[in-house]
Design brief:
Oligomer: single chain
Structural class: alpha+beta
Low-confidence stretches: none
Strand order of the largest sheet: 2-3-4-6-5
Distance between the termini: 54 Å
Number of helices: 11
């Protein structure tokens, strides 16, 4: 009898405690990723003006992304392309005493505007970029300079706007943000259901029949004091049917059950029959459906027989006649609701 005390509430809490494990593990994984990689810097990059930019410090602190406000940028005459698509335009500007190459998005620079007096961009700091080095080598040839001379003149760091806004980077950022929000919401929601089981979805469905907290208290009291039938993880009290399992909890008043039937499914492995699993389906009033996890055929037969004995109006077994009767019952209720709604609107 002690095992039946507050069984439904304990089962709800156990169910959501088990569901809480996965989001907590994923949240820990996200924290580890944020420590190893500059994910938070990507999501919330720091803002820099020309006077406060220190590319060497940013690289040493693994701060790869930032919002930069730059002045007096000059077009080099070179572009970065992929096939027939232009990815960016190379500019150079002075940041402090350093000449820095800046790769701008085509829309930002108006397709290669010669001089840009001021611009604000989200950029990624690149060290010794291969493509930038190749561009500077070609520029040295065009200017009849030595390659070593131009490399010593220009900073080793490049600020790239297209790289900071590329599809892979954007996907990583939004996947991290959205999955993080979903994880936090899941943890908060499951914790609330553990603290207040009466607010979980399976209990809120009971609003169709009254106050969920009152129904839950009455069902648990009846289950503890005088359980009528116990079959596996299914229980019948004087007024309620309850099902508790690792897959969830369901509770419905016996007086609201319209139809109950058994469904069998044959499991196979490479076309070899293994085992038949049996499931119990309950259709109740107010459009409530309950699908009980797999149980033994004997337990389900015992449940259906008891439900019919307790209420002969319950339809038992899956037949076309029973399906039509339930459908007509629901259609009649739906028609009455529409009629009442129409009358209330007229009033």
């Amino acid at each position: 009898m002690e095992s039946l005390e507050h069984l439904i509430t304990r089962s709800i809490r156990t169910y959501y405690k088990n569901r809480l494990i996965a989001p907590i593990i994923y949240l820990c994984f996200m924290v580890v990723i944020a420590v190893i990689y500059p994910v938070m810097n990507l999501i919330a990059p720091s803002d820099y003006s020309e006077d406060g930019i220190n590319l060497s410090r940013m690289h040493q602190e693994d701060e790869r992304f930032g919002t930069f406000k730059l002045y007096n940028l000059y077009f080099t005459g070179y572009i970065k392309s992929l096939g027939d698509n232009t990815i960016g335009y190379y500019y150079y500007t002075m940041i402090g005493n350093d000449c820095v190459v800046v790769l701008l998005d085509p829309l930002t620079c108006q397709q290669g505007e010669p001089i840009i007096s001021e611009v604000r961009i989200l950029g990624e700091v690149l060290l010794d970029s291969t493509i930038t080095t190749e561009m500077l080598s070609n520029l040295a040839t065009d200017l009849n300079w030595s390659e070593q001379g131009i490399m010593e003149t220009v900073s080793r760091y490049t600020i790239s706007e297209p790289d900071a806004n590329s599809l892979p980077v954007s996907l990583v950022k939004w996947i991290y943000i959205l999955t993080g929000l979903f994880t936090v919401v899941a943890i908060v929601t499951y914790s609330m259901f553990i603290a207040f089981p009466q607010f979980c979805p399976s209990m809120l469905h009971l609003y169709a029949y009254g106050k969920p907290i009152d129904i839950l208290e009455q069902a648990e009291q009846e289950l503890y004091e005088a359980p009528q039938l116990v079959a596996g993880d299914m229980y019948i009290t004087e007024h309620y049917f309850a099902q508790v399992s690792p897959y969830g909890v369901a509770l419905v008043p016996l007086a609201e059950i319209l139809w109950v039937y058994k469904y069998s499914k044959l499991n196979t492995l490479i076309w070899t029959p293994l085992k038949i699993n049996y499931y119990l389906y309950i259709v109740a009033g107010k459009r409530q459906y309950i699908r009980c996890p797999k149980s033994s055929n004997k337990d389900l037969d015992g449940i259906m027989d008891y439900l019919y004995a307790a209420n002969p109006d319950i339809l038992v077994g899956f037949t076309e006649e029973n399906r039509q009767i339930v459908k007509q019952h629901r259609d009649a209720i739906s028609y009455r609701r529409r009629l009442v709604k129409l009358l209330m609107t007229k009033i």
